[in-house]
Structure formats: structure tokens, C-alpha cells
Design a protein that fits this description.
- There is one protein chain.
- By secondary structure, this protein is of the alpha+beta class.
- The protein is built from 20 helices and 19 strands.
- The protein has 4 domains: about 100 residues, Rossmann fold, CATH 3.40.50.10330; about 180 residues, Tumour Suppressor Smad4 (Sandwich); about 230 residues, Glycerol uptake facilitator protein (Up-down Bundle); about 60 residues.
- Helix content is about 45%, strand content about 20%.
- The strands form 2 sheets. It has a 15-stranded mixed β-sheet that branches. Strands 16-17-18-19 form a 4-stranded mixed β-sheet.
- Helix 10 packs parallel to helix 13 and helix 10 crosses helix 17.
- It is elongated, with a radius of gyration of 38 Å.
- The N and C termini lie far apart (about 110 Å).
- Pfam families: DUF389 (PF04087).
- Keywords: Membrane, Transmembrane, Transmembrane helix.
Length: about 625
């Protein structure tokens, strides 16, 4: 016997659409919930009910061990999708009539209310989807529709326990509970091994510490195809368990299959193999003993001070470090900001080595001086003082930087007065025309220096940062300019030093901000001042960069060209007043003075301005 259970309002639909599919089958229609009835062990109760009535009826049927068939209904989308049954009434009827034995499925309950799809606790609106039109486009639409609410998100504190044994006291943006992987957008990406009859459910505890972390995860989750992520993000805890209790000191807002609820405590449990389903379910699989084990991956979730900080305010855009996390770093940076005898001695030695290396035109010697130079440390300390607006660290840092700068200029200029050589070597020349490219190097070095200080495990790479940013060599060249009383040498090298200094301070500070060591409100004044300094430095850098572009253009145009049947080789262009051009002319005979003057005039016409021409004549065959 088939009992067709339906609401009185749906009688006409049942008679017109369902009865024709059961022409030769013994059946009886029953109005729900008005009519009471008792079904035998061999009878099947076929429901045409909404989610609301199925929540009432299915637990009763499970207790009585009654066989149930569920027909798709316009208002039972959660049940149909959650139990993995077909959407076509004809297909469902065929399955019910052809199946000889029922499939037993677990039932998941939240505060004694059956869950067909998921329980969403807290601020997990951004992960919800449209159950009528579940597709990639709809998920993207939902994401962008709700993204405006991200700035108001905050953590709630939860005590999570099982069978009176506390698992963790943490804070979370929200918690998602599902029985199998296809129950929600997030679960599809994170839950790999699940079934409707494995006796357990999965709990995803979503605890991002900043909005950037959350948005990046959401964007990855929305990739088309619904594929799993290779690795669960560290801010998501995961439990696989048979029962669970979630408590809070205040009322917890949550939804069960889209229905809003409130409670101070949430109890979740699985009734194993309690529902006898007289039709196929795509989620009903053979039990895999390896997947029946409980699991607890909550070690990366916030606890203690971190939990308290996250529950006090809305979710920050950038990560924020706790006092525990940056206490040791602050201690190191405060020490580095102080002027000590060791610092002064190392600055003197690195300057002397750099100066001798510049005169000797030796790159290895100059690199050694870069490694010895300690000036990068107070600069990073100053950057931290700027973003934290720590006046003591700022004062000590700037004093130490100025002392280091003064010592370097003093000793390099003193050595220059002693050495009876006035020759601009290639190593000196390389530091006389800083450009925007040098600012790019300073920016990357500032980020690297701050990151290396913040991450204890990579502190050894500070030597590499010192080599990359090269603070002492331009200071030594500036000192050489003082010793020679040459403004062009001093100004070019000192501009390079200021470029490195401003770039490191600005972007080391920004790196500390991004890593969560300071709030933006406190750092903005210091960042504005540094930005002004960078803007002032950028003007001469831009002019220098344009000059280098012009030099390269002239060199490229002249190299390999011919003038009066002579081939031009080894072109070098240097800006001055007028422009200086040196080149080699290759021809069959030596050149006379008149021929060189004629060549000079042709080159000036091509370049468009007067030049000083230096010519080397070479005979070629």
C-alpha cells in the first residue's frame, strides 16, 4: 500500500500530476497534518510536503521505522537537495516502486530540529547560496551583493565541547555545520570525505583575522568548477564528530536550512541510520571504515589574547599582531635604535673599506663593506617608530642614523684628503646618477628588511638586504665629493643615499602595517611625512632617469652607424654642459683635425645640441 501524504492545499496537484504516475498501484491519500493514520511495515508513505512539514514528519517516521518516499515539492528544496534525491516526480515514483529494500540514512539534528542541508552560525551570510539556482554565476552574484557588509564583520566567542569535554574556546566569524560535502558553497571546497550514513557531521569554524585573508579565500572558493582547494586555510578549523555543543554568554543567532533561530546553546547530534528512504540517494555510499574516525583540526584557531582582541572590534583590513607576537620584535628594534660604541666602530670600518674599494675600483671589497654596515638596523627601527608613533624610538632612531651618516661622511672625506688620487672610477661613477630604478631597489629592500626583522626564521637574510640597498657606498662617494670639493660628485651620491633612506623607511613602515604591527590611524602622520620626502627626492630622480633614457637613445642611434665612411664604435654619452660624447672611429686612415671637426658638426646636427667630442681613431681593414 502507498500512502500519499500531502497538505490539503496540494490535493488538486496530487490528483492531476501524481495519480497518473500510479495508475495500477494501490494507494490512499492522506491530508497532513489533519489526519492521523498508522502504516504497516510493508507500506510506503510517499510525501508531497514542504520543508516545514517534512521537519515535523520525518523524525516521527524515523522513530517508527516507517519507509518514506519523498516527492519533489516547490517548497522542499532543502530536503530534496540535502538528501540527494531526484527532482523529477516520474523518476522518484519509479525508484519507489522498483526498490525492493529501503536505504537507511543518518539524520542530523540541531536542538532537536532535523537538518537537511546546513546550520549557519554567526556571520556566514557571505557563504550562502541560492538554492533554486545553484550555479557559479549565482554564487558570484551573492558574493558581490554582500561584499558591502564586510566592513561590519566581527568575531563572536564560542565554547565548543563534545560530551561535556571542552574542545576549544575560540572566536569565529561564523560556524558552518554540514552532514556531507555538497551541503554548502564552502563545504564543497573543503570537505572531501563525507556521506549521509557515516554517523558523523563536519563543522567548519571560520576565524579569519583580517578582511584580506577572508576575501582571498572567498575569491578562491568562487573559482568555477566547484573543485576542492588543495589545502584548508589556516584560519578555518575543522571537526568531524557525532555530537557537539556550542555555547556563548549571549544569544547565538543561527539558521537551520535558512530558517532563523536564536539560542544560548546549540546542540548537534546524529541519529545513525534512522531514516528509511524508499528511493535512491546520491549521497548514500558504502561505509569506508577509514572515514569513520573523528578528527579535530583546531590548533590554528585564535585563543587567549588573540581571541579577546578579535571579539572587541570589527575585522581589520590588514592583520594585527598581538602584544605576545611583537613583544620580542619591539625589544630588538628598541635596542637597534640606540647609538652604541659598536655601531660607531662598525660604521667607521665599513666606511673605510668602502672608500678604499671605491678608489681601487673593486666590487668584492665594496660588497664586504655593505655587509659590515650596521646602518640598516636603526633605519628599520625608525620605520617601526613611525608607524607606531613611538616618540622614543623615533628620536633614538633618527639620532643614530644622523650619527652614522656624519661618521661615514667624515671618515670617507678624511681618507680622500690623504689619498693623492682624483680619478672617477667606474664604481664611483655608478653612484653619481641615481634614477627611479634606484627607488625601486630601495622599495623592495625596505619591504625585505622589515619582513626579515618581523620573521625570526629569516633574519639571516639581512646581509642580503644590506647588499641590495647599498647604503654605505653612496655615503662614502659623497664623502669623496667633500674631500675633492666637488659638488657634482657629492650631490649625486648623497641623492642616492637619501633615495635609499626614504624608500626603506616608507616601505618598511608599510610592511609593518600589513603584518599587523600597527593600526593605520596611528601610522598615517608618519607615512605622510615620509611620502613628502619621497616626493621631493623623486623630482631629481625623474630628471636623472630622463637623462639616462636620452643617453641610451643617443648611444643606440650612434653605435654601429657610419659618418664619412667611418664606422662608429664604443659610444659613451655623459651629461654635462655641453653634452660629452666619446667614441671610436674605425677607418682605413688616420683622421685630420678638419675631418674630426666636420664629424663633430654632423653629430651635433643629428643630436640637436652642442657636444664635447672625444675621438679615438682606429684603423680597420
Amino acid at each position: 500500500m502507498l500512502y500519499i501524504l500531502h497538505h490539503p492545499d496540494d490535493r488538486e496537484t496530487v490528483e492531476n500530476d501524481i495519480f497518473p504516475l500510479l495508475e495500477n498501484t494501490e494507494k490512499q491519500t492522506i491530508d497532513y497534518p489533519e489526519t492521523e493514520f498508522e502504516a504497516g511495515n510493508d507500506d510506503i508513505i510517499v510525501t508531497y510536503l514542504s520543508d516545514e512539514f517534512l521537519r515535523e514528519f520525518l523524525p516521527k517516521a524515523a522513530k517508527k521505522n516507517q519507509k518514506v518516499g519523498i516527492l519533489p515539492h516547490p517548497e522542499n528544496t532543502y530536503t530534496t537537495k540535502g538528501l540527494g534525491i531526484a527532482n523529477d516526480p516520474k523518476e522518484v515514483i519509479e525508484e519507489i516502486l522498483e526498490n525492493e529494500e529501503a536505504h537507511t540514512l543518518d539524520m542530523l539534528y540541531c536542538n532537536d530540529i532535523p537538518i537537511f542541508q546546513s546550520v549557519n552560525i554567526g556571520n556566514v551570510f557571505i557563504f550562502t547560496e541560492d538554492h533554486q539556482n545553484n550555479n557559479f554565476v549565482r554564487e558570484v552574484y551573492t558574493f558581490f551583493k554582500n561584499i558591502r557588509h564586510l566592513s561590519s564583520l566581527s568575531h563572536n566567542s564560542y565554547v565548543i565541547s563534545s560530551e561535556d569535554e571542552k574542545i576549544i574556546h575560540t572566536s569565529a566569524l561564523g560556524i558552518i555545520v554540514v552532514e556531507h560535502a555538497l551541503s554548502s558553497v564552502v563545504a564543497r571546497r573543503l570537505v572531501s570525505e563525507s556521506s549521509l550514513n557515516d554517523g558523523m557531521f563536519t563543522v567548519l569554524i571560520i576565524s579569519p583575522t583580517n578582511l584580506l585573508q577572508l576575501i582571498w579565500f572567498l575569491l578562491r572558493s568562487l573559482l568555477p568548477g566547484g573543485k576542492q582547494l588543495d589545502k584548508t586555510p589556516s584560519f578555518i578549523g575543522r571537526l568531524k564528530i557525532a555530537n557537539l555543543h556550542i555555547k556563548n554568554s549571549s544569544e547565538i543567532e543561527f539558521t537551520i536550512d535558512g530558517e532563523k533561530e536564536q539560542a544560548k546553546e546549540i546542540s548537534l547530534r546524529v541519529e545513525p541510520e534512522s531514516l528509511c528512504l524508499a528511493q535512491a540517494s546520491k549521497y548514500c555510499t558504502e561505509k569506508d571504515e577509514a572515514n569513520l574516525k573523528k578528527s579535530n583540526k583546531t590548533d590554528t584557531l585564535p585563543t587567549g589574547e588573540k581571541r579577546e582582541e578579535l571579539t572587541k572590534r570589527t575585522l581589520p583590513i590588514f592583520p594585527r599582531a598581538t602584544t605576545e607576537e611583537f613583544q620580542e620584535l619591539f625589544k630588538v628594534l628598541r635596542e637597534n635604535s640606540k647609538t652604541t660604541s659598536i655601531y660607531v666602530v662598525m660604521m667607521i670600518l665599513s666606511t673605510l673599506i668602502a672608500t678604499f674599494g671605491l678608489f681601487a675600483d673593486s666590487s668584492p671589497v665594496i660588497i664586504g663593506a655593505m655587509i659590515l654596515a650596521p646602518i640598516i638596523s636603526p633605519i628599520v627601527s625608525f620605520a617601526m617608530g613611525m608607524v607606531r608613533y613611538d616618540t622614543n624610538m623615533l628620536k633614538r632612531g633618527i639620532i643614530t642614523i644622523l650619527i652614522g651618516t656624519g661618521v661615514s661622511l667624515l671618515f670617507s672625506s678624511g681618507v680622500t684628503l690623504i689619498i693623492p688620487i682624483k680619478l672617477i672610477t667606474s664604481e664611483i661613477d655608478a653612484r653619481l646618477s641615481p634614477t627611479l630604478l634606484d627607488m625601486g631597489i630601495a622599495v623592495a629592500s625596505g619591504v625585505a628588511a622589515a619582513y626579515a626583522h618581523a620573521k625570526e626564521g629569516i633574519a639571516k637574510s639581512l646581509a642580503g638586504v644590506a647588499i641590495a640597498v647599498a647604503l654605505v657606498p653612496p655615503l662614502a662617494v659623497a664623502g669623496i665629493g667633500i674631500g675633492w670639493w666637488d659638488w657634482q660628485v657629492f650631490s649625486g651620491a648623497f641623492l642616492l643615499y637619501l633615495t635609499n633612506l626614504a624608500g626603506i623607511i616608507m616601505f618598511a613602515g608599510i610592511t609593518f602595517l600589513v603584518l599587523g604591527f600597527a593600526p593605520f590611524k596611528r601610522a598615517k602622520l608618519g607615512l605622510v611625512y615620509t611620502l613628502i620626502l619621497i616626493g621631493m627626492v623623486m623630482v631629481p630622480l625623474s630628471l636623472s632617469f630622463n637623462r639616462i633614457k636620452k643617453e641610451a637613445s643617443i648611444t643606440r642611434e650612434l653605435e654601429g652607424s657610419t659618418v664619412n665612411e667611418l664606422v662608429i664604435r664604443d659610444v659613451k654619452v655623459r651629461f654635462g654642459d655641453p653634452l660629452r660624447v666619446s667614441l671610436t672611429l674605425v677607418g682605413p686612415e688616420n683622421l685630420s683635425s678638419d675631418e674630426i671637426r666636420e664629424i663633430k658638426k654632423k653629430l651635433e646636427d643629428d643630436i640637436g645640441e652642442p657636444i664635447n667630442l672625444e675621438v679615438i681613431s682606429a684603423r680597420g681593414f
